[in-house]
Design goal:
globular; mainly alpha
Length: 90
């Protein structure tokens, strides 16, 4: 699992539509599908259920959504703190 996959997962979990999520991420839909398949395989559980043309989160998807938000928030905070700290050293 990597940060890009978590970002893709979060956008898809908000859009609940591969096409719309791919457009929002500025990537091709097959790229998003492959990354989500890899993530689900790595986690060992389905994260989405297909419902017609749309999808919905499974219980595992809901849990990952919560954790992914926290992880990405912490990464952004750390990156911002590092940039600020680096400018203090100059």
């Amino acid at each position: 699992m990597n940060l890009r996959q978590l970002e893709y997962f979060l956008v898809l979990s908000e859009e609940l539509n591969y096409h719309q999520a791919a457009e929002r991420l500025f990537i091709a839909q097959p790229t998003l599908s492959v990354q989500m398949s890899n993530l689900q395989r790595e986690i060992g559980q389905p994260l989405f259920l297909k419902v017609g043309r749309h999808i919905m989160l499974t219980n595992a998807g809901l849990i990952l959504q919560s954790h992914a938000r926290k992880i990405l928030r912490q990464v952004r905070a750390t990156t911002g703190a590092s940039a600020t700290f680096g400018t203090c050293l100059n």
